[in-house]
Amino acid sequence: MSTTYLLRGVAPLGGDRTDVRVEDGVVTALGADATADGATVVDGDGLVLLPGLVDLHTHLREPGREDAETVASGTRAAAAGGFTAVHAMANTSPVQDTAGVVEQVWRLGRDAGWAEVRPVGAVTVGLAGERLAELQAMARSAAAVRVFSDDGKCVDDPVLMRRALEYVKAFDGVIAQHAQEPRLTEGAQMHEGVVSAELGLTGWPAVAEEAIIARDVLLAEHVGSRLHVCHLSTAGSVEIVRWAKARGIAVTAEVTPHHLVLTDESARGYDPRFKVNPPLRTAEDVEAVRAGLEDGTIDVVATDHAPHTREDKDCEWAAAAFGMTGLETALSVVQATMVDTGRLTWADVARVLSHTPAAIGRVAGQGRPVAVGEPANLTLVDPSARRTVVPERQATASVNSPFAGTELPGAVVATFLRGRPTVLDGVLVDAGAGVGA
Amino acid sequence: MRHLLSAGDLTRDEAVLVLDTAAQMAATQAREIKKLPTLRGRTVVNLFFEDSTRTRISFETAAKRLSADVINFSAKGSSVSKGESLKDTALTLQAMGADAVVIRHHASGAPHTLAHAGWTHGAVVNAGDGMHQHPTQALLDAFTLRRHLVGDGGRADVTGRDLAGAHVAIVGDVLHSRVARSNVQLLHTLGARVTLVAPPTLVPVGAGTWTADVSYDLDETLATGPDAVMMLRVQRERMSSAGGGYFPSPLEYTRAYGLDGRRLAVLPEHAVVLHPGPMNRGLEISADAADSPRAVIVEQVANGVAVRMAVLYLLLAGGDQRPGADAEDMEARTGVRTDGTRVHA
């Protein structure tokens, strides 16, 4: 296969149409300079060209739960969804709390070649919330970890959180907090409100998230560190982050695609596909996170892609695992909720799904402008396409999509990882092992 | 009615039909030979993931009085305790030909999942799921209330009647109570007014949208002269000396929310006292109240069998659910006239 491509008639960030030439992993020419000489031509007429998407919050499950997902299957899903980089969360088994484990995950990603894998390091040993993991060793490893998180668990001890925020300044790291006050959420199954009261499921109060975020932004201010808030889900959380930013606190926040569209009403059928942490909230919360994403209070959309085996979802609600897949539907959900509603432009989409997550994760070479000399991490989207989600046909190894059977707008036509197409004509392109890096 | 999962699924007419059918069933239970041939050859499985001797025996008795074959499947000592999933248990029961599955489960929604996941084709009867629903309890409570508040203690015919105008106070641990949730829905459907009485810690966030008033003051509520008081069981483990307890001590709970002789005396002459059992005597209800003539607690147990017979009958044999037609249909099937006289044994 040729290593030179001409993307003809594409609209970078949804703007004016142009031609883009990609050569040896780099964008080498734009517009009239972009010739077809020796290049494979990709007809991109009417398609939107975005920088390759960067996910700040992905569960790849390897090592430990390869029955739900592997680094290879998860990054295939990432490529299919238009992503060129993913941050692999630390709650693997063994936990990504040592240089050895993060390097293993990083190497698995490099060998698979579907997307750049940036392992997230655990903040505390074994995610136990008791003592700091060797954060510096992970930062200095080949995996060059910059994002640290006990995601799935909250660093609820205020002293430990303070120390973590301070400590990672030495290597420009960031703590990504899973904001969930554990005592307020013991046995919690879904958002606490009208629906939980009726369904008899133990409630998960909004304040359990908001109280931790409020504490953490104040801690970040006190020690002068940057803080990242994972998957915020309530109107109150948006308010607190808005207040903190106005105060000049170095806080960034993410929202998941599912919290942009689904509500706690989904729980009424007790279908565990809708069981997720943090839980789906109310319609008012959905509007608040959309408004927060629109006005920049929320910096990024991150998938919290959480694959689970069938047996972990094919059961009664209380016995089911928390989480839903998202890599292959994220862009479509953002288009449906934010672009097609006129609240974000495609340039904004590039910001929240590529530029900013890459900046937060300190991922060099990702989230760059579409410009000559930049690495060719690119995603080509057809906004006019419509597709019905069929989990069994997705690249992820799991089928726990909340959007099964739902028609969504937009389709990824091509994804380029450092100039190599991982997706072409909407189909994954195998390159064989070891080519990606 | 294909399944009975939630009291909220019943329309007014469906609920009255169950009560009327239960009255017919109750009439047969006064006879020397209590057994009816209605469900001969049908299999009812009692699938109990949670200990509940009373409810299981009530369903077992109901099914046997209708001549069904009954299989009791208890989670303890079965493959469930070895880690078998609800799905595999359900598939097993399906393979064995269960016509109805009566399920009691600690997880809210488990009966809903059983009914809708395609694991079993039989009718599913919710015998209590987590903090969600206990519809047959609400039906037997409504049956008992109708008999006393509308039917003058069994002296008047109540066929076709609902509970319009009645005021029922439900007192105690509403937060964790499936009985309260089912009763709030069913009593509203039947035209009654409900006041929930509990300390604020035991009222769920979100209960503001329920078809019931909420009061934190039992004496104030009793002073309004409710027609019935339903006491809920309060589990002692809900009280805790450490942080997170729902009330400070059993004594304080009893002082504020317990039904005793003094509070009983405040009630109108006709008012009755209910309790789903098992009672914590001395905690939510005193012996004076529990054993008083106003207490219909033992009668609730007897009515439970009749109501569960009605539910099994309607789910498994009651194809035509028009109330009028059903009485004839029932006569034909049970050999019992709806006026209570026997056609043949």
Provide a brief overview of the structure:
The complex is a heterodimer of chains A (437) and B (345). With 437 residues, chain A is an alpha/beta fold. Chain A is built from ten helices and 19 strands.
Tell me about this structure.
- The complex is a heterodimer of chains A (437) and B (345).
- Chain A is α/β, with parallel strands linked by helices and 437 residues long.
- Chain A folds into 2 domains: 4-48 and 373-428, Roll (Urease, subunit C, domain 1); 51-360, Metal-dependent hydrolases (TIM Barrel), CATH 3.20.20.140.
- Helix content of chain A is 26%, strand content 21%.
- Chain A has 10 helices and 19 strands.
- In chain A, strands 1, 2, 3, 4, 5, 16, 17, 18 and 19 form a 9-stranded mixed sheet that branches. In chain A, strands 9-10-13-14-15 form a 5-stranded parallel sheet.
- In chain A, α4 (158-167) packs across α6 (206-223), α6 (206-223) packs parallel to α7 and α7 (235-246) packs parallel to α8.
- The model of chain A is unreliable at 433-437 (pLDDT under 50).
- Chain B has 345 residues and is of the alpha/beta class.
- Chain B folds into 2 domains: 7-133 and 304-334, Aspartate/ornithine carbamoyltransferase (Rossmann fold, 3-Layer(aba) Sandwich); 135-299, Rossmann fold, CATH 3.40.50.1370.
- Helices cover 38% and strands 13% of the residues of chain B.
- Chain B is built from 12 helices and 9 strands.
- In chain B, the strands form 2 sheets. In chain B, strands 7-6-5-8-9 form a 5-stranded parallel sheet. A 4-stranded parallel sheet of chain B has the order 2-1-3-4, sandwiched between helices.
- In chain B, β1 (43-48), α2 and β2 form a beta-alpha-beta unit.
- The model of chain B is unreliable at 320-345 (pLDDT under 50).
- At the A-B interface, α5 of A face α4 of B.
